[in-house]
UniProtKB/TrEMBL annotation, chain A:
Residues 14-37 are annotated as: Disordered. GO terms for molecular function: molecular adaptor activity; proteasome binding. Chaperone protein which promotes assembly of the 20S proteasome as part of a heterodimer with PSMG2. The PSMG1-PSMG2 heterodimer binds to the PSMA5 and PSMA7 proteasome subunits, promotes assembly of the proteasome alpha subunits into the heteroheptameric alpha ring and prevents alpha ring dimerization. Chaperone protein which promotes assembly of the 20S proteasome as part of a heterodimer with psmg2. It is found in: Cytoplasm. This is Proteasome assembly chaperone 1. GO terms for biological process: cerebellar granule cell precursor proliferation; chaperone-mediated protein complex assembly; proteasome core complex assembly. It comes from the Eukaryota. InterPro entries: Proteasome_assmbl_chp_1 (IPR016565).
Length: 288, 256
């Protein structure tokens, strides 16, 4: 038992096991209805990998079906905008599949009819070099869905001869420092890599305690376990919605080996980015 | 760690943070940038204009507001607020009532410092009450007092207030403040025009697409507030760009 600040007494979780054995027996008696509810929930939260044009599922995992030498994953609105403007506009990319999923973060309760903007992770490969893959993930992948996502994308025995680059954003208040967050020069870039990553990182490494969250953390852990070279570029920003300055903070990555051959016209990409920003600007009156 | 100490405003964290107040300061950063400069005989207020929805009446989107107008407009206090619009409206209403109440009681208009202290005290009360959240606004309060000296004060959601020679609030305030620290000199504010140019230059550091997204107001001693028109701002911006080019030409001549 533990007391909170407000004086309420709550049962604290104990890894040694519950004290009350009677309660355990009660819990073991699961009714068929409970099982059915659990099955339905699992089905609802299933991560499906499919081909959007035909709406058919992919029979095997994405990287088992296609060979991959380079995989760039953008997670979050700003990272997706960066890849859209700088990488996708500099070449011809073909959609090879998408991951469809539903969780409580989705605005709709109807898991059957999900809009592409909120519930899809789209995968592309470059037409002239089909071993280069790109993933644009703007939806939130919940903790219980991350392993499914990894299995569906990487498979149960991934190849080690590919390089993974992950781009994402976090709020600057997540950055562990003794300084006041107001004095930090946000947005700024930090990197975290797996042991097998031998390349050069384009910014300083994330200092201890180097904690990352959600899907980027899941991908990085997966790559570390399977000894795949991977690097995560994390942009700490004070503006979590789509923002020009935050997206431009990813620019140092353009000089990295993984993105070097993919970006052709930077000034044109910057123009495309500006247009994307104005198109997405929601006229909000909440903040003046 | 933060998640256990940030739900209630009245709870300090073990290392002395009031997280709700700090989060309120983050809310201010979501607004546009505003800059205030105190000259010798002038106070300049500049703010980044946010794009207004097509069907919205632009006149109702006002950031620079008068708190108190003396009968002959000799003394006037103006405020510019950045952060949550609704919170700003509430604070301004209370401040305006206080200005009139002070005039009725004491028969003198408020000083800039008095009304700043009132607003700051109000903001502080909301950082200590249970069930209320802090105001998510920072304000720049300017005006001339009885003695004819220009004043510039800044308040923030924690309820602190300070007098400043020049300051910026809102998004990218840090960048603008650094620019002001480098460029605010006695020569820079020697005359009114130079102070105006300094404010515009400071805003141009962070405002995208230049002069058309800037709103500027000046208050001179014994004169009413003057809002600059878009044309006047463009003229200033052109002059600033010309000066920049001349300075660069001089530099390149020296190196050659």
């Amino acid at each position: 038992m533990a007391a909170t600040f407000f004086g309420e007494v709550v049962k604290a979780p104990c890894r040694a096991g519950t004290e009350d054995e009677e309660e355990e027996d009660e819990r073991k008696k699961e009714t068929p209805e409970d099982r059915e509810v659990r099955r339905q929930l699992a089905r609802k939260r299933e991560v499906q990998l499919l081909r959007r044009q035909t709406d058919t599922s992919l029979e095997v995992s994405l990287l088992e079906k296609y060979s991959c030498s380079k995989f760039i994953i953008a997670i979050g609105g700003n990272a997706v905008a960066f890849l859209s403007s700088f990488v996708m506009n500099s070449g011809v990319w073909e959609e090879v599949g998408c991951a469809k999923l539903w969780n409580e973060w989705c605005r709709t309760t109807d898991s059957a009819h999900l809009s592409p903007s909120e519930a899809f992770c789209v995968f592309y490969h470059q037409k002239c070099n089909p071993s280069v893959f790109l993933c644009q993930c703007s939806c939130y992948v919940a903790e219980d869905q991350q392993y499914q996502w990894l299995e569906k994308v990487f498979g149960s025995c991934p190849r080690k001869n590919m390089q993974i680059t992950i781009l994402t954003c976090r709020h600057v208040t997540d950055y562990k420092t003794s300084e006041c967050t107001g004095s930090l020069p946000s947005p700024f870039l930090k990197a975290l890599k797996t042991q097998n990553f031998r390349g050069r990182v384009c910014c300083s490494l994330l200092e201890q305690p180097n904690i990352v969250h959600d899907l980027p953390a899941a991908v990085l852990s997966y790559c570390q376990v399977w000894k795949i070279p991977a690097v995560l570029y994390l942009c700490y920003t004070d503006v979590m919605k789509l923002d020009l300055i935050t997206v431009e903070a990813f620019k140092p990555i353009l000089s990295s080996r993984s993105l070097k051959g993919l970006v052709k016209n930077i000034p044109q990409s910057t123009e495309i980015l500006k247009k994307l920003m104005t198109a997405n600007e929601i006229q909000s009156n909440i903040y003046t | 760690m933060a998640s256990r100490y940030d739900r209630a405003i009245t709870v300090f964290s073990p290392d002395g943070h009031l997280f709700q107040v700090e989060y309120a300061q983050e809310a201010v950063k979501k607004g546009s940038t505003a800059v205030g400069i105190r000259g010798t005989n002038i106070v300049v207020l500049g703010v980044e204009k946010k794009s207004v929805a097509k069907l919205q009446d632009e006149r109702t989107v006002r950031k620079i507001c008068a708190l108190d107008d003396h009968v002959c407009m000799a003394f006037a206090v103006f405020i510019i607020f950045i952060g949550l619009t609704a919170d700003a409206r509430v604070v301004i209403n209370r401040a305006r009532v206080e200005c009139q109440s002070h005039k009725l009681t004491v028969e003198d208009p408020v000083t800039v410092e008095y009304i700043t202290r009132f607003i700051a005290t109000l903001k502080q009360k909301y950082t200590q009450s249970n069930g209320r959240r802090p105001f998510g606004i920072s304000a720049l309060i300017v005006g001339f007092d009885d003695d004819g000296i220009p004043r510039l004060y800044q308040t923030d959601p924690s309820g602190t207030y300070h007098a400043w020679k020049a300051n910026a609030i809102g998004r990218s305030a840090k960048t603008v403040r650094e620019f002001l620290e480098k460029n605010y000199t006695e020569e820079a504010i020697a005359n009114d025009n130079e102070a105006i140019k300094l404010a515009i230059r400071a805003l141009l550091e962070v405002v995208q697409s230049g002069g058309k997204n800037i709103e500027l107001a000046i208050i001179r001693r014994n004169q009413p507030l003057k809002m600059f028109s878009a044309k006047e701002i463009e003229l200033q911006v052109t002059e600033i760009e010309r000066e920049k080019e001349d300075a660069e030409k001089k530099k390149s001549k020296k190196t050659v």
